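HUMAN: Mind making up another protein with tokenized structure?

ASSISTANT:
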Amino acid sequence: MIRFALPAFLLLCALLLCAMPADAASFDCAKAKAPDEKTICATRALNDADVKMTTLLDVDAHLMAMGGRSDMQDAQRVWLRRRQACKGDVKCLTKAYADRLADLQAAFDGIASQGPF
């Protein structure tokens, strides 16, 4: 029974991700003022990457021990500064999201490898 918990959890996350509204998950597009935020809201692929990043960040945060959570939050702040430095450059933002998603996925994979849950 326990070995089915992780796939069920991942399916639930996927379903929640599909049910989210069109706005980017980490900020309100109606209030976007910074160039990076405006570009994310206007570019579907970046908006989708933002939703995925926010979801994966939330999942990782709930599964990590407190020390790991603090490190992850610090890394997120550093990453947000990197994203802001991209301004409205879609290529730069795409690379920033790809890198962050890879980091968050690696963290999740590390947690999952310690299962079963």
Remarks:
- The chain has a mean pLDDT of 85.
- The chain has one domain: 2-112.
- The two ends are 10 Å apart (CA to CA).
- The first helix runs from residue 5 to 19.
